[in-house]
Write a structure and sequence with these properties.
Length: 90
């Protein structure tokens, strides 16, 4: 990532801070289906353990977590990419 040619096509942003596991899972999976293949969805969470919930939900619908960014002490941004994970390809 040289900062010059890196671009991210972001189709959707979800603010899932403070929601329960079932709601997070449902909204992530619905969000992935509304995201174009190869594009990103940004998911905002405020509990560290919610990052793994987002990752499991994304993986279940054949998407990947590309990156996790810490915004501040209590907020994280999870970058979910709508693509088939490498481990599942082929």
């Amino acid at each position: 990532m040289d900062g010059k040619s890196d671009t991210f096509n972001i189709d959707k942003e979800l603010d899932l801070r403070g929601l329960d596991e079932g709601t997070i899972t449902q909204k992530v999976q619905e969000g992935v289906s509304a995201t174009k293949k190869g594009n990103f969805m940004l998911v905002y969470v405020n509990r560290y353990e919610d990052i793994s919930i987002v990752a499991k939900a994304a993986f279940a619908v054949k998407a990947t977590v590309d990156n996790v960014l810490k915004k501040n002490e209590k907020d994280w941004v999870v970058m979910v990419k709508n693509e088939v994970p490498v481990a599942q390809a082929g």
